[in-house]
């Protein structure tokens, strides 16, 4: 039963990753080019948008890779030091993504203000909050593992 649940968690992780990969490869350049049309100071902001969003995807994928490693550790019952190191890496990846989205919120605000679309700010806030929850859960798991 435990083997099946670990496999299911891996499948769910890949199901989460595949749409995000396609979104970032196909849709993101189109969105940032649209940002250049909406905001008047567009060239500098366009490149900042590319750097910020593609910069945030790198720690996100690193965190997903660490989650998959964590599932393998759980399946193989590996020592707690490797488990703790992986949980710590997940926490740092989540904090990094949250920080990069906080830095990018002014760009989202400019875009939402010019285009009168408050959903853009809500998207940035949701990404920030989800990563904060992930970092908090990782910290709780790390602290709980230290207790044993």
Automatic annotation (TrEMBL):
InterPro entries: DUF2975
Residues passing through the membrane, by range: 7-32, 47-71, 92-112, 118-141
Protein origin, superkingdom: Bacteria
UniProtKB keywords: Membrane, Transmembrane, Transmembrane helix
Stretches of the chain forming a coiled coil according to its record: none
Name assigned to this protein: YoaS protein
Species in which this protein is naturally found: Clostridium intestinale URNW
Record lineage: Bacteria, Bacillati, Bacillota, Clostridia, Eubacteriales
């Amino acid at each position: 039963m435990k083997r099946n649940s670990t496999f299911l968690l891996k499948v769910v992780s890949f199901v989460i990753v595949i749409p995000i990969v396609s979104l970032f490869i196909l849709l993101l350049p189109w969105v940032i080019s649209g940002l250049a049309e909406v905001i008047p100071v567009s060239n500098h902001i366009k490149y900042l948008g590319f750097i910020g969003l593609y910069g945030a995807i790198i720690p996100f994928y690193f965190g997903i890779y660490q989650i998959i490693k964590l599932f393998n550790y759980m399946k193989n019952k590996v020592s707690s030091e490797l488990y703790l190191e992986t949980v710590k890496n997940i926490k740092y990846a989540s904090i990094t993504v949250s920080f990069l989205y906080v830095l990018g919120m002014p760009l989202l605000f400019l875009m939402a203000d010019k285009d009168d679309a408050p959903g853009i700010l809500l998207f940035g806030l949701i990404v920030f909050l989800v990563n904060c929850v992930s970092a908090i859960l990782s910290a709780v798991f790390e602290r709980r593992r230290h207790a044993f």
